[in-house]
Structure formats: structure tokens, C-alpha cells
Amino acid sequence: xxxxxxxxxxxxxxxxxxxxxxxxxxxxxxxxxxxxxxxxxxxxxxxxxxxxxxxxxxxxxxxxxxxxxxxxxxxxxxxxxxxxxxxxxxxxxxxxxxxxxxxxxxxxxxxxxxxxxxxxxxxxxxxxxxxxxxxxxxxxxxxxxxxxxxxxxxxxxxxxxxxxxxxxxxxxxxxxxxxxxxxxxxxxxxxxxxxxxxxxxxxxxxxxxxxxxxxxxxxxxxxxxxxxxxxxxxxxxxxxxxxxxxxxxxxxxxxxxxxxxxxxxxxxxxxxxxxxxxxxxxxxxxxxxxxxxxxxxxxxxxxxxxxxxxxxxxxxxxxxxxxxxxxxxxxxxxxxxxxxxxxxxxxxxxxxxxxxxxxxxxxxxxxxxxxxxxxxxxxxxxxxxxxxxxxxxxxxxxxxxxxxxxxxxxxxxxxxxxxxx
Amino acid sequence: xxxxxxxxxxxxxxxxxxxxxxxxxxxxxxxxxxxxxxxxxxxxxxxxxxxxxxxxxxxxxxxxxxxxxxxxxxxxxxxxxxxxxxxxxxxxxxxxxxxxxxxxxxxxxxxxxxxxxxxxxxxxxxxxxxxxxxxxxxxxxxxxxxxxxxxxxxxxxxxxxxxxxxxxxxxxxxxxxxxxxxxxxxxxxx
Lengths: 421, 190
Known about the structure:
The complex is a heterodimer.
Chain A: E1 24-29, H1 30-40, E2 45-48, H2 55-67, E3 73-76, H3 80-92, E4 97-101, H4 103-108, H5 110-118, E5 124-129, H6 143-147, E6 154-157, H7 161-176, E7 184-189, E8 197-202, H8 205-212, H9 242-275, E9 283-286, E10 293-298, H10 301-314, E11 319-324, E12 326-328, H11 332-339, E13 345-349, H12 360-369, E14 378-382, H13 392-403, E15 415-416
Parallel strand pairs in A: 2-3, 2-4, 4-5, 5-7, 6-7, 10-11, 10-13, 13-14, 14-15
Antiparallel strand pairs in A: 1-8, 6-12, 9-11
Chain B: E1 2-9, H1 14-27, E2 31-36, E3 46-54, E4 69-72, H2 77-80, E5 91-96, E6 110-116, H3 118-125, H4 132-143, H5 148-156, H6 165-177, E7 179-183, H7 184-189
Parallel strand pairs in B: 1-4, 4-5, 5-6
Antiparallel strand pairs in B: 1-3, 2-3, 6-7
């Protein structure tokens, strides 16, 4: 079974990518955009196992490699556990690697997935986000990526097809930065961004090469017969140097995540300098200057939310929007600063935090609000589960409910946006 | 912003038609976003695809509920789903049908109809009822929003799985030539 539609492309590049010196306008879907990002990033090894709605992404990769657009080895393995295991070996040997997965594939990948960050392997993997089983569903939602949000990967969510392409390339600079050295998930929404096709600009290969600089993928643990070393030693326990070593690993991992907050902003600025493409690195504030209340969004829902904000502003509703791009590490300080002036907050999640019966990002937002000296009433909204549409009209309802909190002390129960669609 | 909803059946290429039309609009310097409906598409099952076109960047990535134009690339899908749901007043229908445009049962919201016997043309061109590129020609003729040249360009840049490029370019031209455009005001006057 396969739910992969075709996408039409205005790809006129029969010539090798090195010859391309001007931006090229194309129409493609997010899965193809991610594959173009991989092509531009100079990846050495790709391992694949297809799963809806990621399948067409790895099909594009296989095609690009076959056509010579990507000079990489493709490893077609028997399942996602092997996908990431193969790539970890490649990363240890100093290769730039890529794969993509989602939903049940990510679940099957879990063991090597949790091992990678602790080994400080600078890998990039797209999650074409999909709601998790069960009930059975093959459609989009953030539950798969959210389920692994504490595994120690950096996780960034894209809003548009263009941002998918751009972020895949930027992810390598972030992952490989010596102050970071952590794997990065580039999340793009299954359905809306995987199959949604839009006009994009493919940056010139030479601009991207200048942005990336010389390849220096894994300087600290390169498998090298001339330089034998132990990798991933046994640590921990209750005696000897074990506990101290384990704490050191965890603390330095947290330090890498902390540095990532700075590096992500730097890399986004540098990407803009090289390509002219501007994206917020951590959070984007939209019409927040004089906002009385705010909503927070994540991923492809943001486009409809911004349109709704514009309509509401036209009607005199003082709403602003904070889009979170980098979800892990969570930009707590930036979010707190952005929300410092509002009198109410609504947070829209496309997944469920079962611990709180709310959205997961809502919990992160509460932690950020706690830094402020006053209490801001807030509400958790959950919508867009398993492919459900989050429309401009849904966001107007979010605004109405959130605005009603202004002046009150409390929030209220979680609002399920598609319950009556 | 102009919103177009495609209706068809799995295997006819409605989703691909929306993507090719998006490419044609972009080729002409506009912005376009095509979002398919999602499911385990099966040959013959009703399928929809949503296309927005605008002079400026389009941000919303959602389905379309109030289309300006409905393109039906299948003659019978209207029996399975309400293809007219939410159509804006004065909206346009581009329909594959063997009936004359004036004989179609239409809701009051429809102001313009482009009728094209795309199934008959497809059987001649492809030997199979694959109507998507024919109906792109019909769309261009009915709305005047996109040129045949830009559509041809989009076809050349698309990957054809089931038929050759030349066949599809012929299909496009046949769709354009074979479409009768009918304005409801004219019917009222007559």
C-alpha cells in the first residue's frame, strides 16, 4: 500500500549541480525538497527504508543518487533499526549521513536512535511526522517526534516546503558544529508538507558549498585503524570512575544542547547571508509588538495561523503569534521574553502529552511562563491529529477562547479542536 | 487568492494535475500551492486535490472548503461526493461530460461551466480513460487563467508514468479545443 502522489517538478537541471550558479525556481513537495537539501549538503551515505508518508522522500533520494545528483552511497536495508545502525557506523568513520523515517519506522529505530546522541554523532534525519498507532492511522501529526523528544536529539519543525529544504542543509552545520556535535531531526508534517507542493527556490550549489565550508564531520571519534580507540565505553554503576564518567557524559550532552541554541541562530543568519532565505532559528514572533494575547504554533499549521492573525488584526483583535521552530532544545528564555507582555496565551499542539492530558508544547510553554513574575492565564489546544485539517477558522476559535482568558486568573481544560469537525 | 478543487478517481491523475497546474502558474510568475487529500488511494475511489494560486506567497497549507473553481476530471464522481460543496457564488465548474453544458444539473452558485468530453478524447489519445491533462486544457480554456504554453512547460518537466509526453501534450491541446464554455447569464437570457 502506498499513499504517495506524484509531484510535478520544474527541474531543468540536467547539468551537474556544480554547474548551477543561480537560484532555480521549482514546484515540488516537501519530500522532494528534503531530497534536494540532501543533494546540496554533500552527503556521503544514505540508508533507507520507506514508510508512509516518508516513502517518496527516500524514493527521490534513490533517484537522485542513481542520476548522479548526489554523490553518495545508498544502503537499502531491511528495516529502520538497520538504517540507523549502518549510518552510525558511517558517521563514526567520518561520513556525512542522512535518512528519514516516521511513525512505526521511528519506533522500530528506537534502540540506535537513543544511542546516537550520547555518542555525539552529528547526523541528520528527517522525521516526516505522523500520528502514532493506535488507533490505526497513516496520517500526519507530531506524536511520533514528540514521543522521542527526550532522547537527546535536536529537533526542528518546518513551516513551509522552502523551509524543509533550507533546514535540511542548515542541520548539518548545526550538528557538526564543534560546540554541539549532536544529531538533528528536521521534522516536516506528514501530508501537508510531505505531499503539499509549493513554489520554492533552489539555492545555487556554490552558495551552499560556501555556506557549508570544508567537510569536518566527526573529528572526535573517527574509526581509524591507524588511531585505534575505544568508542562508547561502559560507564555508570555505583563505584569507581563509572558514576562520574556517566555524569560527565550527560552534562556535556546538556551543554551541547545549550550551545545549540546559540549555534542554531548563528547558522540561520549565515544561511540568510548566503542564500537570502530568512527563517527564524529558535522562535518567530509574528505581530507580537503590541499583542494583548498570543498563540503558539509548531510546524505547518503556522501558515493558516498567520493568515488568521492578519484577519483578526484587521478586525481589531490584538493577537500575536509565536512560532516555535526549535523544539529541542526548547528555547525557554526566548519564549519567556516573547510572552513577557501578553495577558493570555493559547498553545496549539498537534500531539498529546498523556502525562498532562494537554499538548506537549503547552507544558514547555508553562515552564517558560514560570520565569515571568506574574501569572498568565493559558489554554492548551490540541488539533490536527492524524491528518485533521487546522484551518484559518480553527485559529479564529483559538483566538476567541484565548482572548476570553484576559483578566482571568486561570486557564481551563484542554480544547480539542477537531472534535466536532 | 484563487482556489481550485479537483475531483477525480484514483488512477486518473487528479493529484498530479493539481501539481502540474501549480507548476504552470509558477512558470507564469505567480505563487501556487497544491495540497492533495490524503488516504490510501485506490484506483476508482474518489480523490480530491486542492490548489491555491496568488500574486504573493501563500502561507496556509490546508484543504479548500470554499473553491472558486471545481474541476471534475471524472464524469461520475459527482454521484459519490458533493463536488459543489462550498463553491463560491459565481463559481466555475470544469466538467468532463458527454452531455452538453446546458444539460448539466447545477447549483445556483455556478456561474460558468466548461464542458469537455474528456473520456472520449482520452480513449482516442491514450486508449484509456486518463483525463487529467485533457482537463488541464479544459481548465485553461474555461478560465483563461493560465496559458497552454505554460501548461506544456509543466508537462515537459513532469514525470509521466503511464503515457508519453507527446501524447499528453496532444491531450492538453485536444482538451482546450474540445471545451465548450457556457455562462449561466446567457442561459437565463436565452
